[in-house]
């Protein structure tokens, strides 16, 4: 196991995708619209044309509890996260069904379930050591998955209060007003009073985090969470190891924004699987320059929506392989 001493040094190792493979895909582009673009992305990530059908797809669900849940910013009670995790690990959720349909498997990464981060509107989320530990955990997960043959990864989250943390990070990094990054939460939604509490929490946390807006690691400590920090480590390491990633939901998008601040090249290794109704996700994706593959209104953020995009990627790969063979 390596030790994270300077995440910027690790981020500096991120390569560019294979330009010649991307060029070959462009030269073979036909009338497949967005599928041609996805084939180009896969080719660059895989380092060859035509792109291969992903053989081992994994949905990684980063789970953690957040102290900000105590501010009553969600329809779910603060102690709901362990039950959600148990449902996923037991195979009893829509995520598990969609993973099976996509030819994928699911792994829950426990980044902090039962160990809530600090309430970010009043105190820091994590200590420096906790950030270091979480980032390292994400790096280790990436190495473990890629060493075992995973060649396409979907990233999602589970945790009460996680979208509030994501909204704060997006607000700070993009300098967007809190009222423009707080949504109604998707699914059953949140009522007006909950929306006002959530917006107030984002405002107060943003004020606390503003002075460290240019220091991504300090920002994770001040206004992030263990799940987001683990995602950051994972996304950087996956890019270093030339592995394509589909982002799902606003929390993954917020983690991607933090990584972009550390190393913009990482963005070339990602695609956004799907669009949610969370305004913070839309703000983040605009900054990242990513257009979602699908727009089906799936709000879970746990990887479900991005898993629906996996068959689209397979279609892009197979269509181009067919063209080359012909």
Structural features, described:
- This protein is α/β, with parallel strands linked by helices and 326 residues long.
- The chain has one domain (55-315): 3-Layer(aba) Sandwich (Rossmann fold).
- Helix content is 50%, strand content 10%.
- The chain has 14 helices and five strands.
- Strands 2-1-3-4-5 form a five-stranded parallel sheet, with helices on both faces.
- α11 links the parallel β4 (245-248) and β5.
- The model has no long low-confidence stretch (mean pLDDT 93).
The top-level CATH class is Alpha Beta
- Main-sheet strand order equals 2-1-3-4-5
Name the structural class: alpha/beta
Radius of gyration: 19 Å
Element-by-element helix/strand order: HHHEHHEHEHHHHEHEHHH
Please state the second-level CATH architecture. 3-Layer(aba) Sandwich
What is the 3D shape?
Answer: globular
Q: With helices defined by DSSP (H or I, 4 residues minimum), what is the helix count?
A: 14
CATH superfamily: Nicotinate-nucleotide-dimethylbenzimidazole phosphoribosyltransferase (CobT), large domain
Low-confidence stretches: none
Largest sheet: 5 strands, parallel
Distance between the termini: 46 Å
